Amino acid sequence: MSSFKQADHKLLMIPGPIEVSDDVLLANAHPSMAHVSPDFVPVFGESLEMLRKVADAPSSQPFIISGSGTLGWDLAAVNLLEKGDDVLVLTTGYFGDSFAECIATYGAQPTQVVAQVGSRPSEGEIENALKQKKYKAVTITHVDTSTGILMDVEAVTKIVKRVCPDTLVILDGVCSVGSEEIHMDAWGIDYLLFASQKGIGIPPGLSLSLASPRAMKTFESRSTPPAGFYTSWKKWLPVMKAYEARTPAYFATPPTNLIYALHTSLKTMTEGPVSLAQRFEKHREASQRVKKGIENLGLEQLAQPDSRQSGVANGMTAVRYPRGFKASDILPKMAQRGVVFGAGLHKDAKDEYFRIGHMGVSVVDPARKDVDVILQKLEEALAEAGYQKQ
Amino acid sequence: MSSFKQADHKLLMIPGPIEVSDDVLLANAHPSMAHVSPDFVPVFGESLEMLRKVADAPSSQPFIISGSGTLGWDLAAVNLLEKGDDVLVLTTGYFGDSFAECIATYGAQPTQVVAQVGSRPSEGEIENALKQKKYKAVTITHVDTSTGILMDVEAVTKIVKRVCPDTLVILDGVCSVGSEEIHMDAWGIDYLLFASQKGIGIPPGLSLSLASPRAMKTFESRSTPPAGFYTSWKKWLPVMKAYEARTPAYFATPPTNLIYALHTSLKTMTEGPVSLAQRFEKHREASQRVKKGIENLGLEQLAQPDSRQSGVANGMTAVRYPRGFKASDILPKMAQRGVVFGAGLHKDAKDEYFRIGHMGVSVVDPARKDVDVILQKLEEALAEAGYQKQ
């Protein structure tokens, strides 16, 4: 199956899309199948079931919908919120800001707690903010892809359950599901939204999400109809229930090939030789190696010192350029060496740092040696750029 | 590349998803690429340009968005309509009904002209309806996938231009673009929405659309903001303009692999040995052969006699079961013979007919002989079911 990889393929080490394994690519090239075919129906149904396993959410309702990860924000705003609802948004980068904008678009009222670049809001700030108003929901970006800041979701949900137990907890797991440990049921997450092209390890194009029983009850007891059509759970819920019961149903044509790819990846994640617990451990190990390697080169993380211990992602690393160097000094030299890193994305610092993704097969399959390769190539690129460790 | 086709792959002859050519499947298995990569940017940009060619719409603004075809209705309702706007919906099946429901969800007011099963509204009915109110827009389902009824879009737009020239013309081309002739600019279509899994010949998962200069002006002069976030052209327009100018931009991660597949198929459609005009002609020829073959077997189309001449699709055929036969007598026997047909879908007649798709490679590539195969297998299945031509 190595025929998929052209000789000039560059190693994709950005925080999504990530490298995709050959068996998943082959599944994405599945011959065309009817969305109602008896061969396809169980593939869809099993994929729904496996999503619950990945998020440790046995009681939840899964959704697989054609769309980018961004669509998950709309699904939350359209189905769980109503006009005038107050929502607390914990922001650690670009994606918190955008989630707040999405919420406001549909008429709910976001209040943001914004951490400075490379930090996260303290537990005291969060507790204090939660006490200011009766919030219908609080949103957490588990890992903000723009900064690599990791939130301690378990700790935040504990505060919410203590201070305002009626407040729904909405978790943006786009850059965390599959690479960070998540226990949706045990932590009390009400809605977990994510996408296909990061820790799940397939090409982009699927909006994935899971809703708790409480979230579904909130949806069912809305006083106004959902504020969208394509995004309405009224339309999707019967479809998801039908496929899980192994019968077809129709609202919109599901993206059959991406669902074959999803099924293949979820099978590996839930039944492969590497258990989910081991998968998370491998992400932590790889992350430590990358962060240690960065430090050894004399480079600094974007993350502030107070966040570096427990507040940084295990699936990506944001790295400051050395003083006097910029993107054009480093990233093209990495590309020449066959490695793609991501540029900065935070509005206040985007020219000051680059981003390395280390998720999925790149860290789970040791034979690839992707982490060794990127650290080696980075050292070479820096040297060619004239950088000397101080 | 025939390795993609398993020996047990059944010929998929439903009105979407359709059979996908091997080069497109291979493109869908492209190694993972960054959405901002200098290799991917022109693939996205050229795809936007080729969409204009397929719809003969040089003046239009194209959009490629991750989503099912259904998302195109939301894009129309969110960006072109505002609360209270009156919209005339010309309905020839399931999809007209659903489009009306989508429009109502966002607060505009649909008025439907509903044709009886297997017919289309007459030009007199349409003209009369257009004179009743000042409509912001009229929607036409070019081919309603549930019935195979084809609207004469050129004739309808002529009526609109004469009776109410300010009314926007919105065309649902999900089951027509690529299989039916469309001249968006010349006919005066303001918004054409479609999907990837029918005449475009790639797997499902892309919402494709084109907006006329007048549609973009209508959008820019809205008195209220667009009623969605993921669906807002405010977000997508800068992205589409950037990629067409061969620079990356970000709102949501584009479905890179599906865009490689789209690019591959659009290249064939616009630059391949079969011209677009020949492609449409091949669809007309294949359609005639299927419809003649059906008639030779003594079967009847769902289309009423008054529609059979010019009012039926060239990419699909809806066929009534012979008297005394039902879906379970025929469709499983087709599947046993390696051919997948679609069941009925119109709410008033869904158990009375089945649907045959004949689009894309199945009719453009004569070496496949797909039309011969399905007619032959249908004759065998009918005989096994005990059917005798009367």
UniProtKB/TrEMBL annotation, chains A, B:
Q: Name one GO biological process term.
A: glycine biosynthetic process, by transamination of glyoxylate
Q: Where does the record place a coiled coil?
A: none
According to the UniProt record, one GO cellular component term is: peroxisome
| Residue numbers of N6-(pyridoxal phosphate)lysine PTMs | 198
Q: Which InterPro entries match?
A: Aminotrans_V_dom (IPR000192), Aminotrans_V_PyrdxlP_BS (IPR020578), PyrdxlP-dep_Trfase (IPR015424), PyrdxlP-dep_Trfase_major (IPR015421), PyrdxlP-dep_Trfase_small (IPR015422), SP_NH2Trfase/AEP_transaminase (IPR024169)
Q: Name any cofactors this protein relies on.
A: pyridoxal 5'-phosphate
Q: Which PROSITE patterns match?
A: AA_TRANSFER_CLASS_5
Residues where substrate binds: 355
Q: What is its EC number?
A: 2.6.1.44
A GO molecular function term, named singly, is: L-serine-pyruvate transaminase activity
What superkingdom heads the lineage? Eukaryota
Which Pfam families does the record cross-reference, listed alphabetically?
Aminotran_5
Q: Where's the Aminotransferase class V domain?
A: 27-346
Which keywords fit this entry according to its UniProt record?
Aminotransferase, Pyridoxal phosphate, Transferase
SUPFAM superfamilies with a match to the protein in the record: PLP-dependent transferases
- Please report which protein family the annotation says this sequence is part of: Belongs to the class-V pyridoxal-phosphate-dependent aminotransferase family.
Q: What PANTHER family would the database entry show?
A: ALANINE--GLYOXYLATE AMINOTRANSFERASE 1, AMINOTRANSFERASE CLASS V
Protein name in UniProt: alanine--glyoxylate transaminase
Please name the taxonomic classification of the source: Eukaryota, Fungi, Dikarya, Basidiomycota, Ustilaginomycotina
